[in-house]
Amino acid sequence: MLEPLKALPQQIGxxxxxxxxxAADTGDFSEANVDACEAAQIAPLxxxxxxxxxxxxxxxxxxxLVMPDNPTALDRMRHTxxxxxxxxxxxxxxxxxxxxxxxxxxxxxxxxxSVRGLERVKGEWGLVCLAFNLKRVAVLNG
Length: 142
Prior knowledge:
Blueprint: H1 2-12, E1 21-24, H2 31-39, E2 43-46, H3 56-61, H4 73-82, H5 84-91, H6 98-106, H7 118-141
Parallel strand pairs: 1-2
Helix pairs in contact: 4-5
């Protein structure tokens, strides 16, 4: 997957000096993946574990992480993720559709279609999307 990502700047008209970052969740974390990203000259931003919601103030007020001497690719990624810029870049993942599908599966408990045929499935999916959007409107309006 790194090769198509590396070719992306040319496809969308950016120059080769534009840094490329890869933001991924814990399911994609491994030291081998971090090393592969760096070898492809792509800055990895991969979560290593799920952080709990408690303790956010301590994390917010914690001193900046110090880069060790002779850092590995994993050390560099950890340091980047601890900086405000790295946190902001990783936070852009929230703009993707991935949370929407997670909410539909976990919160709304929609895991499989109850009808057969493409037209009927499209209709059922339309209802699921409508229900999701109505839920979002209700939440956003308080």
